[in-house]
Amino acid sequence: MKYQIKVAEKAGFCFGVDRAVKIVYNILNGGKNAVTYGEIIHNPNVVNEFAEKGVRIISTPEEIDSLENTAVVIRSHGVGEEIYRRIEARKAHGVECCDGTCPFVIRIHNIVAEKSALGYDIIIMGDEKHPEVEGIVGFCKNKPVICSDDTELLDFLKKNLRNLKKKVAIVAQTTYNISIWDKCSHLLKTECPEAEVFNTICSATADRQQSAVTLAEASDMMIVIGGKHSSNTVKLFDICKKHCGSCILVSDAGELDKDYILSKLNNTAENINIGITAGASTPAYIIKEVQNQMSEILKNIDEDFNFEEALDASFKKIYTGNRVKGYITAVNNTEAVVDVGTKHTGYIALSELTDDPTLKPSDVVKVGDEVDLIVIKINDAEGIVQLSKKKVDAMVGFDNLVKAKAEDAILEGTVVNVVKGGVIVITDGTKVFVPASQATARRDEKLETLLKQNVKFKIIEINEQKFKAVGSIKAVLNAEKDAAKAKFWSSVNVGDKFKGEVKSLTNYGAFVDLGGIDGMVHISELSWNRIKHPSEVVKVGDVIEVFVKELDAENNRISLGYKNDNDNPWVKFAEGYNVGDVVDAKIVSITTFGAFAQIIPGIDGLIHVSQIANKRVTNVKDVLAVGDEVKAKITEIDVEKKRISMSIRELLGEEEAEAEETAE
Q: Phi and psi dihedrals of 551, rounded to 5?
């Protein structure tokens, strides 16, 4: 007997599941406490592994209310709005929300929230007890209708069609059976033509089901791997049973029953084909373990069985440009070694792993990872195949960029290069060009400051023919700034104090960042002393404490104060000086109508031209010069208007009178 074991082309972790699992790992690697709201995915092996690492599962909103300093990871199936509100309410206690909801599920949430708010009747095709459906229901503004199949849908329509509003929207659980969905959508369009039909079945689910059908039709036995409570796994099992006479559902290799398998195969033909597929929540290593275990079982079934020949028969044929899956078997400083299921040894050079010059191979992949690759060169003589991961990542990444543009989503990436006209950002292994005009909030900022920095950006232009994308960092900065402004204006009051960074200086004042919004400290508010430029008091980058003096929301202007009232020289002057006092003063400026003399730092008095001498003075500069030390008498004080008048002439008259008295 000869046996061939083949894994379905589309099997195992989908994008959404992989993303949710990575979120938990990232939290654990960061040393934070983590809980998941519900099982993060429907796979007992993954759930148990997280439990061993201290990740607890919570299942009621009340459990959130007692959490502190913990990251709550929303399961990949999603939750209703109430859960998000509960987590938001615990932010002050150090509770943060890490949303592991599959993006395709989030799309359904958005659809039902929008349509139900507009008065639509919502119909959901799916399992009403499944957590994904429960989460979708939690975003409906009115009670939705849930149907499991086309029979239930038809029954509902017959009984309620007249009572339905003209506005009807139908969605499906992401893992819903495709063939049943086609019947349902056709039925609804026939019975209720005005209805809006949204095909929300995940494309990965559709691909996985079709791949399973193709393999099942060509197999004598199908093994379906996945959690027994996983909706998409159970559907895969049901689909495979329709196309293959013998079908087994297992969670992992440990559940393979050797005696049962052999009993099913002993009565079959000599050439046996075994097919393996797996649900979206099944890690690659479990698929590999099942594959290996099946090989061991089949190896011992017959003395005539040649395992080497069977293994050779299972090897895939590859060619340049072929897209293949591989398992990382080793990683060194320059490359990764890969098992691609052929007789070749696969290698991925660092340059084909990533475009990010800051990363090493071990930063990108680790032993045991299953990765999608493209064959770039084959050397049959040496048994070597050169592979590229970054080319596949670029394809997948570009699809994500197209999706991000459609959803106006914010992405994150690393600036890896400054080029002519802008910068290059890498996100999920894909290059995005950000023009200089879209790279910074201000034109005077240097692009070099962004190099190796993590940035947030939006996709503003896509060229699908050339696989090129243009991004904007500025768009996110502006959005964040607008949000900060709105928050600021909603709560600010005159007199409020802030600590802010000095962002720029002008001849007339200093601009201070109050947290996303700038205010200005006028030069006159920087110091009680006379200064010629703000740089005499502050410099760019200083963090200073300011207070709000005036608000002009209509023109978006904020006037700030910086001077400390405790240092107000007028207070000191009022406490120590009175009209009639004779003071030593220093001439600090000269005008056509007189001279200003400093009494104490920050307080100047005016000596009018008529009060400079006993004789007529036509030009002040003929008598006084800046820097002269003079004695003058305080003749008037107006603290409210901050004016002081002084006289040298009166002192001259007093000196003459004293001289006459002495002469007598």
A: -125, 135
